[in-house]
Amino acid sequence: VRKLESITDLSIEERDALSRLPLIIKEIRAGEDIVRYGGRPSHCCLLIEGFIYRYKLIGEGRRQIFSFHTPGDIPDLQSLHLKVLDHSLATLTMAKVALIQHDHLRNLNFRFPGIGNALWRDTLIDGSIFREWMAGIGQRSALSRIAHLFCEIYFRLNAVGLADGHSIPFPVTQEQIGDSLGLSTVHVNRSLQKLRSSGLITLRGGTLAIEDWPGLQKVAEFDPIYLHQEVDARPPGLQ
Amino acid sequence: VRKLESITDLSIEERDALSRLPLIIKEIRAGEDIVRYGGRPSHCCLLIEGFIYRYKLIGEGRRQIFSFHTPGDIPDLQSLHLKVLDHSLATLTMAKVALIQHDHLRNLNFRFPGIGNALWRDTLIDGSIFREWMAGIGQRSALSRIAHLFCEIYFRLNAVGLADGHSIPFPVTQEQIGDSLGLSTVHVNRSLQKLRSSGLITLRGGTLAIEDWPGLQKVAEFDPIYLHQEVDARPPGLQ
DNA sequence: CGCGACCTTGAAGAACGTCAATGGTCGTGG
DNA sequence: CCACGACCATTGACGTTCTTCAAGGTCGCG
Asked: Which residues of chain A have a CB within 8 Å of the CB of B123?
């Protein structure tokens, strides 16, 4: 649970206070909304297990996905300071989340500014990732965008120890990939085939395998600086 | 200078502490970088006068602009917690900025958690705007994107009292509009002509006039919820 | 007056979207 | 165990949006 802490920053024995936070554990089925656009949540949502994503509906039947989240993330930390939610949060797979009351978190921030800063930092990284996605959607080709998404997800999962060699779980449909990158399903499909036939990746049954990291990174123009990883920023596990 | 405070949140007489902050005032010519990608600034930059923008270079000769900033903004507040800058900051016009040392700000946050929270909130709104832009670039047509940009800028300028009736200063070239929305200059030009001939706007010599707010808002599908304006969120001045 | 920065215009083409149909896989229920 | 349906991946044909290239045109300024 407190792997969140090791991700963002080194804390002292204030992790003691963290571990005493009252949590409400909740299981949610795949494909359900957790909180909705316009809502005014009174809790934050720490992801313990599974995958979730954030999105917003635009006009008629169009959807933009902003981010995919992996265990340890608190995707709606922002609701601590923004009263009304400007997007929705939904599950990709079945997920286990821990709800934390805003009041408790605020109290914690007050008593331990170090924790507050770490959380603040976390929301800033969130923003940095948005910028990178924006740049990708605005400037990169479809092929490059998809490759970039794969690089990022692999990198992030690897950082929290959820990569298995050069493979990661990636339970995202082609439609969802399209909605996250501003592409149609059909075009995602065709681009994926190119990535596959170039021997860069394999993607099947919710598992993504990076077959050629340098090659993929080159197609993606992936530079992980925007993820602001604290520590060694170790290069992905494949040798 | 402390109009920043009225924007984000109501502060007590901690505005006293704010006004005692040591500032370094600096004037910068139009079209210059203030801080660069990869830098490790030790100051934050409060914009007092003029317009500036944030951007990142992608691949060969492509550029993504993330945001335009108006007086009162602190565009690189994030550098307080993220050591290395993942994008650049540059002036659109001549600008006057106040540099504030990180240490001083951190100290202030420590002594007045209320200020810290307000600043945090500010960075969260920043992130919210990124999400909206991302959605726009990913899902909206060129016409709609441009209209949306105009709505946002007008709305923000109006909120800080810089709108003059239905006109605002908008010293942005068509190339820069294109770079911010993921469009080519040529296409921006053609789309602008459509907006003009529909009688929605006029844009000349760095001044943008909204001729038909409801019409523009409709084309843009503009919903200001994402700007998280505190107060009455008064509708734009044109009655 | 002339130069540079910006806006405008036309034509051709690439990248990507839409529509529509087919096939694969998996879980569920008969 | 098999059949069915739901969901997802795949394919082809065709259309649109947007890009690229290239050439003027306008305006302000030294």
From this structure: 120, 123-124, 127
Q: Which single residue is written with the structure tokens 């439609």?
A: A175
In angstroms, the CA A190 to CA A195 distance is 9
Q: Per-residue DSSP letters for A161-187?
A: T--BTTEEE----HHHHHHHHT--HHH
- Number of inter-chain CB pairs under 8 A, A vs B: 129
Quickly tell me which residue has 């792997």 as its tokens: A3
pLDDT of residue B236: 54
Asked if pLDDT for residue A68 goes beyond 80, the answer is yes
The per-residue DSSP string of B11-33 comes to: --TTHHHHHTS-EEEEEE-TT-E
Q: Are B130 and B66 in contact (CB under 8 A)?
A: yes
pTM above 0.85, yes or no: yes
Write the pLDDT tens digit of every residue in B29-78.
999 999 999 999 999 999 999 999 999 999 888 999 999 999 889 999 99
A213 token code pair:
């990291």
Residue spans of alpha helices (H) in B140-184: 142-159, 174-181
Flag whether residue A129 sits within 8 Å of chain B, measured between CB atoms. Answer: no
